[in-house]
Automatic annotation (TrEMBL):
Cofactor(s) it depends on: (R)-lipoate
Record organism: Salegentibacter holothuriorum
Keyword Cytoplasm annotated: no
Compositional bias per record (Basic and acidic residues), positions renumbered to this chain: 216-245
Name by which UniProt lists this protein: Acetyltransferase component of pyruvate dehydrogenase complex
Length: 548
């Protein structure tokens, strides 16, 4: 009997998924445990395996398509098994709609013929497909066109990659589900737009799509009088724009430029008639404005008398140069990080406590431990272990604020901040208090490697109760961090500094490290945070206590 497979919920926040790639094709034999497809969620791309065996009879979601959780993904059953009942209600209705649409198009065509070539009645031309900005993750509200792989006028086949779209999670390839000619590009490279905004139009070659508005709907014609007024207005604007930089070339020809390019040129005081466009039909785009360098003009000759006076007096040195900025568009991931950190900083009342730890014993203990074969422990591993043990003695620091109550976690899951090229991620070491320092070290290396290679799974980044951020390896002596919500505290770890210290009434060379605890005052009072740091300091200065 055939088995229906729906879009799985691969994380507790997942509402829809994208089929990144099918590993099995229609008609292939499938064994239980075989990987059917790679599903992209809001947090990672994950392999999805089959729980059934048989033949893959139907694929409900093509590669690159997005669908809500529980949407029909595939059907597996016996070879040549009839699955029409499982698909019933879709095909016939679609055919009826297509026939009705066809009849409607024919009627419209007759009406147009009878109107002797008069303007469009408001319908979108036959065969034209409107493509809007896709929602590539459940948290995506807007997208940026990183690059176009097709240009206006290019032929497009079904499955061709149209563009690379930057979301709040990653930059993803967006493929066409239609074939035809790319008639219009709605967003230039580097431009950002809301989900469902007009991205492109594909249809038969030569089709006039000038009547399709930005929202993908057809523009209805107004009266003939208003059209004539608009034409006259356009003529006036065309004539007047010959004197302006945004409308015409030096010889009076029309300038084609994207709205963003015009705005940038206006802000920078650039004459568009001096800019060479690299877009379709010589259209000026954002990149042309960014790369534009004004040609140097010869200085006007000074009158002889003025020149003599100038030569007579020493001239002050005036440095010459051009003021400029490099503008880098914010990635969707960077926007998300900014939003969440802003919410944490402005909603949670932060305060900070700093202690200085004598690292002499920790350095000696680490040296002895690392002399053992196949064992390597870092100072960061020691800090994580000490923090986990201190949380066990001060559970209120291991808490969350919910508004209605304070939740104190009985488990200890340590978040470890890891810098990646696109921003910052926080993989989680679960039940860290039960791990040895060597186990902590191995796990940190594993999740940090996954983070940098974009292999982290959603489960690797969920559930932290406390976070450690270490910048000591960069030589940072002391810093403060923003709390990783919904945690109540985060520990900032500085570098080990060699400096004079007082021991037994004498000044000697010592090694110290500063630890700063950022606390949410709604859950962690000052005395509670101070007591936690005191216990943490004791563990760090006596590492033997962490080996028990």
């Amino acid at each position: 009997m055939a088995e229906v497979i729906n879009m799985p919920r691969l994380s507790d926040t997942m509402e829809e998924g994208v089929v990144a790639k099918w590993l099995k094709q229609k008609g292939d034999k499938v064994q239980e445990g075989d990987i059917l497809a790679e599903i992209e969620t809001d947090k990672a791309t994950m392999e999805f395996e089959s729980f059934y065996e048989g033949t893959l009879l139907h694929i409900g979601i093509e590669e690159g398509e997005t669908a809500p959780v529980d949407t029909l993904l595939a059907i597996i059953g016996e070879e040549d098994e009839d699955i029409s009942e499982l698909l019933k209600g879709g095909g016939d209705a679609d055919k009826d709609k297509e026939e009705d649409a066809s009849d409607s198009d024919e009627d419209e065509g007759e009406d147009e013929a009878e109107s002797d070539g008069d303007s469009d009645d408001g319908g979108i031309p036959e065969g034209v497909e409107i493509i809007t900005m896709p929602r590539l993750s459940d948290t995506m509200e807007e997208g940026t066109v990183a690059s176009w792989l097709k240009k206006e006028g290019d032929k497009v086949e079904e499955g061709d990659i149209l563009a690379e779209i930057e979301t709040d999670k990653a930059t993803m390839e967006f493929e066409s589900f239609y074939e035809g000619t790319l008639l219009k590009i709605g967003l230039e490279e580097g431009e950002t737009a809301k989900v469902d905004s007009l991205l492109a139009i594909i249809g038969p070659e030569g089709t006039d799509v000038s009547n399709v508005s930005v929202d993908g709907k057809s523009k209805k014609e107004t009266s003939g009088k208003s059209e004539k007024k608009e034409e006259k207005s356009e003529e006036k604007e065309s004539k007047s724009s010959e004197k302006k930089s945004s409308g015409a070339t030096k010889d009076g020809g029309r300038i084609f430029a994207s709205p963003l390019a015009k705005k940038m040129a206006e802000d920078k005081g650039i004459d568009l008639s001096n800019v060479e466009g690299s877009g379709g039909n010589g259209r000026i785009v954002k990149k042309d404005i960014e790369d534009y360098k004004p040609s140097e003009k010869p200085a006007e000759a000074q009158p002889q008398s003025e020149a003599k006076d100038t030569a007579a007096a020493p001239q002050p040195y005036v440095p010459a140069g051009e003021e400029s900025f490099e503008e880098i568009k914010n990635s969707q991931m960077r926007k998300t990080i900014a939003k969440r950190l802003g919410e944490s900083k402005f909603n949670a009342p932060h305060y900070y406590l700093t202690i200085e730890v004598d690292m002499a014993n920790a350095m000696a203990s680490r040296k002895q431990i690392n002399e053992m074969p196949d064992i390597k422990v870092s100072f960061n591993d020691m800090v994580i272990k000490a923090s986990a043990m201190a949380l066990r003695k001060h559970p209120q620091v291991n808490s969350q604020w919910t508004g209605e109550s304070m939740k104190i976690a009985k488990h200890i899951h340590m978040g470890v901040a890891v810098a990646v090229e696109e921003g910052l991620v926080v993989p989680v070491l679960k039940f860290a208090d039960q791990m040895s320092m060597t186990q902590i070290g191995n796990n940190v290396k594993d999740v940090a490697g996954k983070a940098r290679n974009k292999k982290l799974q959603p489960k690797d980044m969920e559930g932290s109760t406390f976070t450690v951020s270490n910048l000591g390896m960069f030589g940072i002596v002391e810093f403060t961090s923003i709390i990783n919500q919904p945690n109540s505290a985060i520990l900032s770890v500085g570098t080990i500094v060699e400096k004079p210290v007082v021991k037994n009434g004498e000044i000697v060379v010592g090694n110290t490290m500063k630890l700063t605890l950022a606390c949410d005052h709604r859950t962690v009072d000052g005395a509670t945070g101070a007591a936690f740091l005191k216990t943490l300091k004791t563990y760090m200065e006596n590492p033997v206590t962490m080996l028990a």
